[in-house]
Amino acid sequence: MNSPEDAWENVVRPWFERIAGRGLQNQAAAVVTASRSQAYFFRAQLLAEGKSLLGVKFLSPPQLREVLLRGGDLRVPLREHLRLLLAVTAEEFASTKRDEETLLIAKSIARDPDRFLRVLDELRGAGWNFDEIDLAGLREIAAGFEGHVRECGFTFIHAADRAALAYAQESRPLFSHLLLFGFDAAHWSLWPLLHSATVSAAEATVLLSDPRDEARDLDETWVGTWEETFGPADITPAAKTTSAASVAEALSVPAGEVHFLVGRDTTQQARAIVALTAKFLADRRCERLGILFSGPGGLPRLVATFLESARIAHNDGIAHVAPSALDDDAWRAWLELQRAPRLKPLFQFLRATNRQTFDIISVSQLEDILRRAYNNVLIDDIQLLSDYCASSPELRHGNGATRELEKIRFLPESASLTEFLSQTRTAFVTLRWKERWNELERLSRNWKDRVAPKFSKISYLRWVQELVGAPSLQRDDLGTHPYARVHLLTYAEAQGQPWSHLIFAGLNDETWPAFDTELAFVRDEQIDELNRQNKTLNRRASKRGRQGEGHWSVREGKTLLIGPNEQRQIRRRQMLNLVESVSAGIGATASLYSEATPSRIANPSEFFSWLYFTARGRGVSQQTLHLLEEQTRSWLKDWSPIDAQKVDSISVGRTRYAFGARRQLHPAGEYEFALRSSPNQEISLSVTDWQTSAALAGDRLDESLSRS
Prior knowledge:
Layout lengths: L3 H17 L7 E6 L2 H13 L7 E4 L1 H9 L9 H18 L3 H12 L1 H13 L10 H16 L5 H14 L4 E7 L9 H9 L1 E6 L9 H15 L27 E6 L2 H16 L7 E5 L4 H12 L4 E3 L3 E3 L6 H11 L3 H10 L10 H15 L4 H10 L6 H8 L8 E2 L1 H15 L2 H11 L10 E2 H12 L3 E3 L11 E5 L8 E6 L19 H18 E3 L7 E3 L9 H17 L1 E10 L14 H11 L5 H15 L16 H9 L8 H4 L13 H21 L1
Parallel strand pairs: 1-2, 1-3, 3-4, 5-16, 6-12, 6-13, 7-12, 13-16
Antiparallel strand pairs: 8-11, 9-10, 14-15
Helix pairs in contact: 3-9, 4-5, 4-7, 4-20, 5-6, 8-9, 11-12, 13-14, 14-15, 15-16, 16-17, 18-19
């Protein structure tokens, strides 16, 4: 596949036409796409052509995994459970080690287990284990962690994918027809899952992208692995005769159709993006407009808000995080009180519960007693203040305050999981938090008794907060239109689709592209060593394929590790693919000043500099950035997304002026009748003739104003 147009015309459309003509069958046909946006594009194209989607399932990779594992006895744990088990293992390891460096690493993993968990996922997903890395402490933590996972009856996701492959090879097909689209070398971790899905289909069609120079080794190995497993690939005819295999070649649109906007800050950049969106939407060639970001953050949230204010329907593929219904002020105050049982969190908790917690004295009386006790001892620990209130004869109602404080259940500093859950249930029953306990009990059922070691309250509270207060993704009302022309996406989700216009947003070094971090808790020298070993592992995983010289594939049970260098190559290839997919116009935006340090000028990204040089023939300097910011500010003027009549960029200013001029109360003049003086005789018109004349006069007024 050379381009999205080639894929649609030569493979995807004929595939859907063949599926539509087969009628309903017991086995479903499935389309698996790398991103939801690609599935929306297929659906929009088919609905526009009046094609039926009956009997076709559109699946994402997680949904595909759920289908393949359905009916089995494998239990894939939640990430929250894995983070808890890794923190428990790290705390165990830290309590038995006296080596300072290893102890610091273990404590760091216990505080933030997610980063080390990602490293484990990458290594295990690629078919390797920690014996390949010369760090004894990390190997021991990894081994202990995997032991805890097995004791709880869980199966790692990479092991479940490989088990699904073995099951598919021995079972009847799950799908009559399968289409895999949008997967490339950036998805090496999904190779076992995609392999299992292909084997589970009676007939499978896999679209592979033509490798390009920016990531040729990775892409050729990806294509070679598919060919090694399932046979040679068929070459689809190219709709375009030219292909930009190098960054030095020309853009796919004229240089005049490339727009550069620089905002002084994030808010001004968001305003500029929405104004440019309105300009592109007024273009008759605009069919699909993508606004691309490096990931979630303040800029995409502002853009979505401004699009909502401007009443522009769009598909917000990034969305924003919103707290769950159970994550309220009282819940957060309780968590903070458990972490730090002191006066300030206690007062916040008492005020947030919104009910009469105590029987003997009121909340305000309790606060007054505790403040007076604190003034006497100058220690705000709840337990010490409670003991002082019970023993001090100077405090009126001191004993009553102590009895009321005893009603608040505090978790122990360390305990086993079952002990923590038992204490939590008692506290939740007192607070009447039935929904929270039901959720916690449901997610810990069948495995909580298998976690024997004691661990800290901090790790437990982090796990409870992640489960009960798990946020959800929300979109504005006008951001829930998957078939709208405007799409807010990450650059990876925009791959494999044709676009009439694209806006690359937030092109600053500090935000774009955002690479995944690995082993951030290890010294730089150790990171360099791991990267060198990573390359060694990649070479060991590759082998010469059966199709001769130059054909490479991975060994069975292995995949390639994608480190920072490989990520950089893939992102560079993705960006150039996106530039080539545009047919009408490109926009590039950045901020003049750094978001982290507002007094410092933010450097543009390498892609912004390349795009500007390619389109304008000169480099980007600080003077260039200042000039672009001045031009952007002058172009925007006082425009606001809420004030849509000021959008000069879409040529509605004159129309709005004519609309208002026709409704002003003033004597008729030469523009109304095209006469400089009164006629010699009285003119009498019927109502119908008058309406016709008025309509013609209005049309001529519009023409005159549009020429002025």
